[in-house]
Design goal:
Blueprint (H helix, E strand, L loop, with lengths): L3 H4 L2 E7 L7 E2 L2 E2 H10 L3 E8 L12 E7 L3 H14 L4 E5 L2 E3 L1 H8 L7 E6 L11 E5 L2 E5 L11 E9 L4 H16 L11 H11 L5 E4 L5 E3 L3 H10 L5 H9 L6 H7 L4 H10 L3 H21 L2 H28 L4 H27 L12 H31 L65 H10 L2 H10 L3 H14 L2 H27 L3
Parallel strand pairs: 1-4, 1-6, 4-5, 8-12
Antiparallel strand pairs: 2-3, 6-11, 7-13, 8-11, 9-10, 9-11
Helix pairs in contact: 3-5, 5-6, 8-12, 10-12, 11-12, 11-13, 12-17, 13-14, 14-18, 17-18
Amino acid sequence: MPDSHAASQTAAVVLATTEASALRCPAGTLLDRLTGQLATLSVREVHVVARSSDIIHAPGGTHMIGAEGSRGLADDLRRVAKVARSSIGPVLLVAGDLVAHTEALAMLTEHPARDTRALVSEGERGAPGPSRPPVRIDGGNVVVAGTSFHEVGEAGGTFRGALQVGVSDLTRLAEAAETLAELAEAGGFGPMDAGEAPQLLLVGLVRAGVPVRAAGLGRLHGDRMVEQADVDSVVPRLAEVDEAEARLDGAVKTNDGFFATYGVSSWSRHLVKLAARLGLTPNAITGMSVGLAALAAVWFSTGTRQALIAGAVLLYLSFVLDCVDGQLARYTRAFSPFGAWLDATFDRVKEYVVYVGLAFGYAAGLDATGGGPDGIWGLAVAAMILQLLRHMIDFSYAGARADAARVGAAWARTPGSPGDPADDARGPVPRREPERQAAPVGTGAVRAADGGAGQDTGRAAGDGDGLGTGNAIVRLSRTMEKASPTRWFKKIIVLPIGERMALIAVTAALFNARVTFVALLVWGGIAATYILAGRMGRSLSR
């Protein structure tokens, strides 16, 4: 049985096949600097693929496999395939001439999902070029990737030379690398430079239908060097960015619900820093959130106007801490399955306890709040049942999508697809358009008749699967995603937990529990209908 600690760590393949890997910097060569950074991260071993072994320096604390002489691009790709087939943990592919903040690499190797993600820079930070291949990003995923041979229309970012592949995708990485090696050996990519191996592998994974999350650099730096002047200019500028602040920025979700984004995340970073300074754990913050929700329920149960206002304030603060526990976990990288379960479970518990408190307070029949026992418990139970049904839809759909993905159903390939309203926080993923490419790689792809040395005569995995055109629901969802107002509307209409807590707090403080439960049932009913329609539309979008 593999060691669980080893399985949780990453095996790195450093593709030091360009002359720039030997350029000088304060830490020695660029390769020395990079391997030293990897030694500070959750990387158990480093495989260096180079044209020469005289530029290798083994970092302390990391098991250096050593320099492996390589004869060219095809050989590089086969060595990647070999590591992918033997690794028991994620595999990090990184260009040896990359100059990046350590925090940028940590966004890949330290992320709790341990999934497949690529380091990218979105927007206008750096024009695309041979060392900055263009990518198209949608719904947080890289949906089209390019090289000097593969063109990308409507590119919105660039790939910066670092790609981590999760354990579940290693087999497809190995298959893609081996197929690409055959094509490279046959001259299928023309005069492609060996330094393009990282971006070529990214193309292979995307075209094979592997969901590749985009790890955005934000304020951090990550760029491949070409000559000494680049190094002399870029390395000193790294100190201009506070990596701790950038890490905090990354801990706060930028694509959350409307209320969570503007009502909490706009200032909760200060609480995250304070909690980290005090040594509080995410689970401790979760406990505090539960305690505040319980106190809110107690105040609500009193039934007076002042008590309802106090309960509303406590409920808001409880939700703030509910956001902070996740932000603190991301900031401190203190992740655990128990913590995730605790957070998800108590989100439900807190909400239902508040329902009970509101119902008790209203049933007291105080004149000041217009209360009375008639029917209030029926409304409270109905609101609970509606929420249970919504969660049942979510869990059953997630299970169905997992089952469909195992048998290769197209509608289940990529999370966050259009017509999937409950996933609107992630946004949709458009179809992968057939760019100019070598023969596509992966299950369901069609090899070009000429062996791949020209235009693609088949479809990339995922093309024509209904994600591009689809039915009316899918098309409407994609249209709404294009504009900011309708995108926020999609987030709000599903009544996520932030909006529910805000709805409860405002209606309870200004009106009474009956208004709160009626509002939850009306808005929740609309949300459930919208979600169900989206689930059905996504499932039938062929």
